[in-house]
Design a protein that fits this description.
Layout (H helix, E strand, L loop, with lengths): L4 H7 L1 E4 L2 E5 L5 E9 L3 E6 L2 E4 L1 H5 L14 H6 L13 E4 L3 E4 L12 E5 L4 H16 L4 H12 L4 H12 L2 H4 L16 E5 L4 E4 L2 E2 L10 H16 L5 E4 L2 H9 L21 H26 L1
Parallel strand pairs: 8-9, 8-12
Antiparallel strand pairs: 1-2, 2-3, 3-4, 4-5, 6-7, 7-10, 10-11
């Protein structure tokens, strides 16, 4: 949907048809053109550079245009690695006495993905790493979407969590369904088969600590709007991808987004090593999840 003049006025953008102009606090003017491209997702063209933007498509009500990276181009271009994230008010998308939502450059999506991993929200470490990596990529000459992809590849599910995730996915046969030797290649040469996102794609903090699901997504109006609008638009980019919510809180977000239950892998525990119930929860759901994987990818093969 086009950004209307009324919506744009609240976010620093002014609109004339599909032409958007934003004036930064420093007086610099940034122009972009919002056009509708397949697969049903708006693309914002900054100069000659496109940004495939599900966040813009989701804008409305409690979600505004600042949820898109284009609203933060000035900050991304001048960001210095190691800058204090919570000390940068321009990055704050929403704040009340409990919750703060901070812009995170993860608003890219892969329409060719066969599987989408859905976490709860980026943590502080991922937020810092994503900002640093996006800024470094843009300084290296990368266009915005390439910089966002690089940041996501570096910051998503790093360290021991990635190792646990791969083992758990292999244990339910996802690698076989995708004709891979192991799901480890989803983070390497076969990365275009997968995508990653979060129920709340921008980092959420509860009293300046990493948000872990309290208050529940459906108990806070902005968190609920983020799942219902932004996550729904994100998952719509790759409608043939199996959605894998990591943990119960992420699964709630996927449900609020109105995702078709047939494409959701239910019961997958969060792969963090800090999840003391991970092994028992995984074992209890392993057979059912294996059947979901078989059914989803088998149905896709039949339908072509």
């Amino acid at each position: 949907m086009p950004v209307t003049a009324g919506t744009a006025r609240d976010t620093g953008w002014t609109a004339a048809g599909y032409l958007l102009t934003r004036v930064s606090p420093h007086g610099a003017s940034t122009s972009a053109v919002l056009v509708a491209d397949d697969p049903g997702m708006e693309t914002v063209r900054y100069g000659v550079e496109p940004h495939a933007c599900f966040a813009q498509r989701a804008a409305g009500g409690l979600i505004d245009s600042r949820w898109c990276s284009l609203a933060h181009l000035d900050t991304l271009r001048t960001w210095l690695p190691g800058e204090g994230v919570l000390d940068s008010p321009d990055l704050t998308l929403y704040a009340d006495d409990r919750i703060r939502i901070v812009f995170t450059p993860f608003d890219s999506a892969n329409p060719k993905a066969k599987v989408v991993f859905v976490g709860l929200t980026p943590c502080m470490a991922q937020l810092q790493l994503a900002l640093d990596e996006t800024a470094n990529a843009m300084r290296d000459g990368a266009k915005l979407d390439a910089a966002l992809l690089r940041a996501k590849q570096v910051a998503a599910f790093a360290g021991s969590m990635r190792t646990n995730l791969i083992s758990m996915l292999d244990g339910i046969g996802l690698h076989t369904a995708l004709d891979l030797p192991s799901c480890s290649s989803l983070f390497g040469k076969d990365r275009l088969l997968a995508d990653s996102t979060s129920a709340i794609c921008h980092a959420v903090f509860f009293r300046d600590r990493n948000y872990s699901g309290a208050p529940a997504i459906d108990k806070h109006p902005v968190l609920a709007a983020a799942a219902q609008q932004v996550l729904a638009a994100n998952l719509a980019v790759s409608p043939r991808a199996l959605a894998v919510p990591l943990g119960r809180a992420a699964a709630q977000g996927v449900a609020i987004a109105g995702t078709d239950p047939a494409r959701v892998l239910e019961g997958f525990p969060h792969p963090s090593g800090a999840n003391g119930h991970r092994a028992s929860l995984y074992q209890a759901s392993q057979a059912r999840m294996t059947e979901t994987v078989r059914s989803w990818f088998g149905d896709l093969q039949v339908s072509g």
